[in-house]
Amino acid sequence: MVRVSGPEAGRIADRMLKLKGNAHLSEQKRGMWYGTLIHPETKSDLDECVALWMPGPHSYTAEDVVEFQVHGGLQLVQSVLSAALMAGARLAEPGEFTKRAFLNGRIDLSQAEAVIDLIRAKTELASRSALQLVKGDFSESIRRMRQTLIRLQAHVEVTIDYPEHDVESVACARVIETGQELLTEIQELIRRGKMGRVLREGIRTVILGRPNVGKSSLMNALLRQDRAIVTDIPGTTRDVIEEYANIGGIPFRILDTAGIRDTEDIVEKLGVERSREALREAEFVIVVLNSNEPLSLEDEELLLQTEGLPRVIVLNKSDLERRIDGVEPLAGDSAVVELSLKAGRGLEELEHEMVLRATAGGVQMDDASYMTNARQNTLLQGVVDDLELAVEAAAAGATLDIIAVQLQSAYAGLGQVIGEEAGEDLLNEIFSNFCLGK
Q1: Which of 329, 349, 365 is a domain's end point?
Q2: How many CB atoms lie within 10 A of CB 56?
């Protein structure tokens, strides 16, 4: 598909699309039209196509938009794109279609940011969460809170200007009541935003263990594909292998590491150091032990190093005779799962424990309904700070002028969340993360 948007979209389409009866697309009603794409100068045929004609403002960008649906193939699409450029179009910048939709008022900034999250979603839950933002549910919530704030601020300002009509204590009581209600609502958005980060970026999960305990086999089982090389030779994995796995709707960013042990092999030693580096950045850990061997000093060291991190301890090769002992005293609050990939036992239990412990109790769709990003969460936290100061000032009987300043700052902060107060530098930074054509 080749898309053209802007006030000249219809004229460009007329130069490169031949319709039945030599009709002009720009003069037609909104809809789908069959025609032949031609070179704008030589008039030679390029392809048969279906053209979607969407006059503004009823289009994604709120401008005139035409989309040429052509037969697949890199060369053919490139020819159509070149023809559009020759007819007067220019190449879009990254995210420019969505940026135009924002600038033309069709969507707000939070909806625009959600588009990239929807495109990059790694699980169904992440996709559904991003779609909620694209549809504007989050924006509507922010606008409603702004309306509440502006009414509260108006009440405070009236009391300041016309003290004979109201007493300050009444205004302060209203600030305390309404402010606390807004604080509860915004703090819930921030809490959900933390889960949004998990859905967007995934949980950095490191698989650790001595060589040949089954780390790579476990990674392949979690991915449902043979991604890591598996052999009986200790030290096969020499580097960190990274892939995403969808487990219970949560994207786990799984890193299979080199077996941690003392070695004189230079390459393996580098792999072990990278494993230790991965552990330092881990958000969740799976410690793999061989249940068919006694607990070694290296095993004990790994259990001590990962103490305090969210983790699951896996006793692999449980189809063989159990010879390991002393794990439970070192496990603490961590789950201990017996696993046999060969016999097909324990994987479901492991995945259940991963979701439960990595997300502190699991995830419901309501928890991820607003997948806010770091920028939005920072602004929301600033709004919380402003409201807390306003409520504290009202409770302490401070002058209404001080309270009004904090309410105005909170109102402005909510506006920045949805882009009602956004500078050009911020917009360029946000839309530069989009790919072409979006």
Answers
A1: 365
A2: 18
**Per-residue pLDDT at 233:** 42
Q: Which residues of 17-30 are buried (b: 16+ CB within 10 A; e: fewer)?
A: bebeeeeebbeeee
What is the model's pLDDT at position 421? 66
User: Which residue positions in the chain have pLDDT lower than 70?
Assistant: 162-167, 225-240, 258-276, 360-371, 421-423, 436
d(CA 34, CA 29): 13
Segments forming the whole domain that contains residue 213: 202-365
Task: Find, among 398, 282, 397, 286, the residue nearest to 335 by Cα.
Answer: 286
Number of domains, the chain: 3
DSSP letter string, 120-152: H--SHHHHHHHHHHHTTHHHHHHHHHHHHHHHH
d(CA 388, CA 381): 10
Q: Locate 122 and state its tokens.
A: 């790694």
- The overall average pLDDT reported for the chain is 83
Bridge partners of residue 47, in order along the sequence: 37
pTM: 0.67
Judging by beta carbons within 10 Å of its beta carbon (0-12, 13-18, 19+), is residue 420 exposed, middle or buried?
Answer: middle
Same domain, 286 and 327: yes
Query: How do residues 40-80 score in pLDDT, each as one tens digit?
Result: 988 999 999 999 999 999 999 999 999 999 997 888 999 99
Locus of tokens 């052999």:
231
Q: CA geometry: angle at 143 spanning 200 and 392, to 5°?
A: 95
- DSSP letters, 256-292, are E-PPP-----HHHHHHHHHHHHHHHT-SEEEEEEETT
Separation of alpha carbons 127 and 118, rounded Å:
5
Using an 8 Å Cβ cutoff, are 386 and 107 in contact? no
Q: Residue positions in the annotated binding site?
A: 18, 67, 106, 212-217, 231-237, 256-259, 438
List the structure tokens of 313.
Answer: 């301890």
Annotated binding site for GTP: 212-217, 231-237, 256-259
Tally of CA atoms within 13 A in the half-sphere of 88 that contains its CB: 12
**Are 208 and 357 in a shared domain?**
yes
CA angle 9, 11, 13 (to 5 degrees): 70
Identify the pLDDT of residue 228: 47
Claim to verify: residue 87 and residue 131 sit in the same structural domain: no
Structure tokens at 141: 């919530």
- Residues placed in the known binding site for (6S)-5-formyl-5,6,7,8-tetrahydrofolate: 18, 67, 106, 438
Q: What is the DSSP letter of 345?
A: B
Annotated binding site for K(+): 212, 231, 233, 236
